[in-house]
Amino acid sequence: MNQEIKIGNRVIGAGHPAYIIAEMSANHAGSIERAKEIIRAAKECGADCVKIQTYTPDTLTIDCHNSYFHIDNGTWEGENLYGLYQKAFTPWEWHQALKEEADRVGIDFLSTPFDNTAVDFLEDLGMSFYKIASFEMVDLPLLRYVASKGKPIIMSTGMGTREEIQEAIDTIYATGNHQLAILKCSSAYPANPADMHLSTIRDMAETFGCPVGLSDHSMGSLSAATAVALGASVIEKHFCISREIENPDASFSMTPYEFKEMVEEIRKVEAALGKPSYGPSEQEKNSVVFRRSIFVVKDIKAGEPITSDNIRVIRPGYGLMPREYDFVLGKTCTADVERGMPLTADLVQDYMQVIEADLSHMDLIYELASDPETRAQSFITEAIPYATHKLWFTKTLENPDRKLYVVLHGDVPVGSYRLDLKGDQAEIGYTVAPGYRHRGYGKELLKYGEKQAKSLGLKVLTAQVKKGNAASLKLFRSLGYTETAGDIVSFTKTI
User: What is the pTM of this model?
Assistant: First the structure.
């Protein structure tokens, strides 16, 4: 099973832009020039690929007019199968010219073969991947032959039961070819959106473990855009120059204007979906200051207690977070504060406590250092064996030029920092405990580190941060450190 497949330079799978196929089918209406026009229009409308079908009436059926070969309902009611395919097929002698036109304008060229002779013909043309139609999904010998060519396959599954789809997938995989994407499809022309059951897309991805998309025969672009929101990696839609040009597929095909609008809607959906993200977006960052925080609402003198009478949780958001309200009540204010000023950590006596690490903190420091997010942002990302940590920790406690501190908020350890001393300078490093990140504790922790450095007679602090560690970069910048850019960003601050 493959969660992704690759067609040319395009990766198809979750997290990548949907691969959009313009299905020409019979919309050329018997004109090779119109077929070329469709290819050019598909490119202009934003399609990634244009698709044709490779068959003749004789490779699909036989010329017979008894009731078995008569269509009794739907878009092609009254037609005979052989006669319908005679109207709809794309002459094989056009294929080379159409492929060359697609190559010229820069759009992928795809075809659906309907028998082994079509596969052989397309192989001679240099086809780089294949499409399997819904009606042919049950033709296991054909699937086996297509898969044997070792090229990516996109397979529609209209009408397929779960067992039939699995059987088709197993048949393809048994050849050693695992380059497969499957498409949810309603094999009705046009399809009724109420009968499409698009939520099946998610179930198909979980059940079959390969990229899933939609072959959409409904009118309009709503189903296609919805499918992308549900995780579709491929969208296939019938495409014509005009529905006024009579042919078997015109009535349920999209015009260039409609197709372009669909592509734009799909790309907007993808942009809106984005990636899993928490915290303020770029647009929201300016609004963070209008959240609630703790403000002083009556003048407080230094040494006076902080009470429910002199602080409140109000807008805007320049003070301590509301979660700190109960914690600061009863504590002493460290300076005179006027009404209307935010209550900040430095105004609260013993907001944090710093203690020098000793042997009792060995496991705590190990847990902090071993946290996956901490390891990802460290210069050495591999897991730390406990024996290695124990040796490092013991040597750290014995080293007079390295100071290691544990920081408590109340009685809860919220992080640690270290100072590596060298003359009147030191390099500072810090770790915030999981569950306390992105809550302002890191900034306060570093402020305590600066105070500790001053008390040791140090004059300059430095720090090293990985280029991708956005949180730490932002933190050191906010504290006034100057930086030297590179894969490792160097920070310096005179204290």
Answer: 0.75
